[in-house]
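For reproducibility, we list the full input for the zinc ion complex.
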Amino acid sequence: MVYLTRKAEFSASHYYHNPQFSAEENQRVFGKCNNPNGHGHNYTLEITVKGQVDERSGFVVDLKELKEIMNREVIDLLDHRFLNKEVAEFKDLIPTTENLAISIWKRLQPRLRVAQLHRVRVYETEDLFVDYYGEA
Ligand SMILES: [Zn+2]
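The corresponding predicted structure, in tokenized form, follows.
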């Protein structure tokens, strides 16, 4: 089994707000991310797939196809978006980096046929990232 990772970057803005919290609770829990006008992040995404190396090509996955799927299913839909307002699943879901990683997994997993999706890693900053392995 071989693991292969492809990186991509996108920029998006978000704000964190739970309508079930009071204004004070929202401010306390989410801090500056509770600003209703949002703020932006430059995210780095790492997609790791796993599979057997194809004897004929020596590859574990068609890299061109992987890049196309990542662009079509994730980057084109998230890049330069206000996540809360422009991305359907975040209308009722707080667009934390945790939820972003799960949402990216759900977008990619059904589209990858050649190799198996292993991990979605989303960096919110250089020092902070989330890993999701598809586990409940
Ligand atoms: Zn933020």
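The first helix runs from residue 23 to 30. The beta strands are 2-14, 39-51, 81-82, 116-125, 128-132. Both points were considered when choosing residues for closer inspection.
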